[in-house]
Amino acid sequence: MTEARHVGVGIIGLGFGRSVHLPAFRLLAPLGVEVVALCSRNLDGARAVATDAGITLACDDWRQLIANPDVDLVSVATPPGTHFAPAFAALAAGKAVLCEKPLALDTGEAERLVQAAETSGRPAAVNFSYRALPAFAAARDALAAQAVGPIRLAEVSWHVGTRLAPHTTRSWKDDAHAGGGALASYGVHALDYLTWLLGPVERLFARLDHRTSGDGTSDDSCVILLDHAGGTRSSITVSLASAAERVHRIVFRGERGRLVIENTDPLDPVRPFGTRIELVGHPPHQLPMPEVRWLAPTDVDGRIEPLAAHAAALVEALRGARATFPTFADGLAAQRLMTAAISSDRDGAWLDLPVSTS
Ligand SMILES: NC(=O)c1ccc[n+]([C@@H]2O[C@H](COP(=O)([O-])OP(=O)(O)OC[C@H]3O[C@@H](n4cnc5c(N)ncnc54)[C@H](OP(=O)(O)O)[C@@H]3O)[C@@H](O)[C@H]2O)c1
Known about the structure:
nine-stranded mixed sheet; six-stranded parallel sheet; alpha/beta; 15 strands; 9 helices
């Protein structure tokens, strides 16, 4: 594909796909990116969104969207249990793919998607949003520079109240077999960014809980212990039913102090993150944030900007440039950890993981 050719995008799934994927890709118009097709199960709904956005093709069958020659890049924003088939078909048709997290429903599906991406030679990304946030990029640089010394312990505390709100309509989010729950919705992000920040995981122990799920099967909290190959131990605690504290905080405990990534704003899951260093004997020091390249208006969903950053990198890769984004291989790595967490919870035991040396 030449630099001059514009990139046509098709979006499948119009929940998060409508509120975040569509505006994110539209931010990339200066790169020659255009959303040309939309798909959701409800054809009238897809048509209404398409008309509103000035998009010609609206359909209720993702095969039609993938077959469209104007679509170069397929963005999959359907529930996790339905990621595999369209992502696999899009790669087989020679399209680039951006897929929501978790990449698939199980490790077998994720392995086949990695294989499909390798066979097609097309770039394939997973929307692990946190990697694209300035606060996480600043933390990664500071950790690499050992700003608080070698890290021995790290803790993720992520508490929201989504399960406390009365909800009468059941959805895939209540169903473990469709990819819902604390581990698949939130924990997978933490598994990914801890691997990205601290290195691969050698073994883990996990407990999942279902106290407020009613007759739903998906977990509403999870606690995971991870031993990273470099010798760091980390923990993840996620709760979807926290009444008192709404926070997403990661504390890295080093030999000379702490590095803290933190968001305490219950209304915005992304933009308010900051990163500070607390060295023993010094006042806390807030790290300067790297510039946000794809700025969205402040009154819209903050998750648009990180998705636009990953999508821009994917477009550059599609045009043959070297670009960095979370790949399907990263999606598979997180999927393996999720699968291990479920097995560990079932067996009540630590689980060893093969650590790739490549
Ligand atoms: N990266 C992040 O931070 C983040 C945040 C939120 C969500 N997500 C991910 O985004 C994905 C979607 O979540 P959501 O909250 O948007 O779910 P949602 O509100 O249930 O919306 C799902 C959409 O997918 C459509 N859909 C379902 N099955 C389909 C199929 N077979 N073919 C075509 N369209 C289909 C639905 O159509 P109908 O409405 O017509 O049924 C709906 O438009 C999930 O994978 C989730 O994990 C990621």
